[in-house]
């Protein structure tokens, strides 16, 4: 049994309207979750008795009363609505590097990616473009406008390289005695 309190690994991602936090400790049972304004505090323990605690000064205010915890995972996943719909440049208000806070690249969405999706009208850039079904690449002009005709390639018989020349037989070498 450990009596010292440890700091949990916290993974974070964001969308324009939410902050997504994952407390990456297996089977952590929360005894305290306090999220209000720009303050985030968590306290909990695992079945083996290890205690975990972390506090963060969030970049901007959040709606702490509307926090949702996602069920069905071994980790604690929180969806925290932001007070204002905006992209944060970082998770914390101060610009201090915290070794226990990492970006959750599995959930991360960049602001410019969302804008591109909105400009395209959907998230599939190639929807409606039929590249592979029945496409005739010869009609596309080849590389740099060259008209490429695969039938214009030389036959193997017409190849002028020395690759097909016969290899000479090995000569016998007589062994010299070293007496």
TrEMBL record:
One of its GO terms (cellular component) is cytosol. Residues 5-92 form the CS domain. Residues 142-179 are annotated as: Disordered. It comes from the Eukaryota. GO terms for molecular function: Hsp90 protein binding; protein-folding chaperone binding. GO terms for biological process: chaperone-mediated protein complex assembly; protein folding. Residues 154-170 have a biased composition (Acidic residues). Belongs to the p23/wos2 family. This is CS domain-containing protein.
């Amino acid at each position: 049994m450990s009596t010292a309190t440890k700091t949990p690994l916290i993974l974070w991602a964001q969308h324009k309207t939410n902050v997504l936090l994952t407390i990456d400790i297996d089977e952590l049972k929360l005894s305290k979750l306090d999220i209000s304004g720009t303050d985030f505090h968590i306290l909990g323990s695992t079945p083996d008795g290890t205690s975990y605690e972390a506090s963060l000064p969030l970049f901007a205010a959040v709606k702490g009363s509307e926090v949702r915890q996602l069920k069905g995972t071994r980790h604690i996943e929180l969806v925290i609505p932001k007070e204002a719909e905006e992209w944060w440049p970082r998770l914390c208000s101060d610009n201090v590097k915290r070794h226990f806070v990492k970006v959750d690249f599995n959930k991360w969405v960049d602001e410019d990616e969302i804008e591109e999706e909105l400009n395209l009208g959907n998230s599939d850039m190639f929807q409606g473009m039929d590249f592979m079904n029945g496409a005739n690449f010869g009609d596309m002009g080849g590389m740099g406008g060259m008209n490429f005709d695969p039938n214009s390639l030389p036959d193997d018989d017409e190849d002028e390289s020395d690759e097909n020349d016969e290899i000479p037989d090995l000569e016998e070498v007589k062994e010299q005695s070293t007496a």
